[in-house]
Each structure stands twice: as C-alpha cells, then as structure tokens.
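re: ur question from yesterday

yeah so i grabbed the chain u mentioned. its 205 aa long if i counted rite. heres the sequnce exactly as i have it in my notes:
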Amino acid sequence: MTSQPDLVLYDSAISGNAYKVRLLLSHLGLRFERIEFNVDDGSTRTPEFLSRNPNGKVPTVRLPDGSYLFESNAILYYFAEGTRYWPDAKRDRATAMQWMFFEQYSHEPYIAVVRHWVAHLGKTNENEPQLPMRIDRGYHALSVMETWLKDHAWFAGSGYSIADIALYAYTHVAHEGGFDLSRFPTTSAWLARVAEQPGHIRITD
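ran it thru and got these structure tokens back, copy pasting raw so excuse formatting
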C-alpha cells in the first residue's frame, strides 16, 4: 500500500503563481497531494480556507509538520534553500530576490492580470478601461527582462534558479493575454532554456 504524501498543495490549474510551486516540486522530485481550487468562485474565501491562509489565495501549502505557508515566492524559497535552485553566493542570492520582487511588483500585476482578464475571466466594464495601462506596463516588464538577458543566461548567478522559475511562470503564457513575445527574442530563447531543464512540466500538466 502506497502511503499518502505529507505535503499538500492547494492549487489552481490556471494560476501561474501556483504553477511556480508545481514546477519546483517537479524539479526536486517531491511527492505531494494536489487540491484544486477555482480562483474566481469564492472557494478560497471560506472560513475553512482562510484558517489555512488568511489572505485567501492559492498557492498555499500544508507542510509535513501541519503548518501552512503561502505566497508563491516564499514557498519557492522554502523548498529551494539548500538545493541547486537557490544560489550559493550572497550576491547571487540577493539578485535572485531582486528579480523575485520585480516579478511580484512590476511583472505579475500586469502580465498575469491581463492574461486572466483576457483568457479566463473575460473583459468587463470594470476591467476593460484598465487594459491599455496594464498592457503598456507589461511590455515594459518584458523589456526590462530582455535587457538583462542580453548579457546573462539566467536571472541570478550562472545557473537556473527560482528567480527564473518565478519569472517563467507568467512570461511563457503572456501570449494568452495578447502580448507579442516575438518582440523579445532573447527572452524567448531563455524561455526555451527553461523548458529544457530536467523535471520540467507544463502549466497544463
């Protein structure tokens, strides 16, 4: 009889933030139970779910000790520390954090939100007026990445790390929001390198 994994991921198939965690766990070969949530139907706002994550969002993980951890990039750090996916050098670790903060503040609010509105939720009278601004800022974020990648193979240090995972999650599906990635050839080449990493899974897997 196969024992159940002690690690539980509260997940959503369409969420790039949740995909980050699935991708790293796949790289690490860690077993986990996956529980799917709809991010739009209020199921992450129930008292039961809020007792696990008071912010009411996925991803959230239940760790083997029974405690809960939320915020995608914090979860990435938790599992990456002590592995090849967290840089050894102090400066490289700071650079990884630099790009993970960039992803959450200058990338995800625009590229991910536009994708969600266009491809999943649909345009509404409330969100459609915001689209031009968010698209413009999304292209700016892609331009920042393109500039960096012209001189660097990866985002932190000399190897693939959770900084790359954090940025890959929503960048590789940016076209679903209408972003033209052909304008960013160096970034597109980086996306291909990420997809070649051992243990890679697609967001739809």
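noticed a couple things. DSSP finds seven helices and four strands in the chain. also The first strand starts at residue 8 and ends at 11.
anyway ttyl
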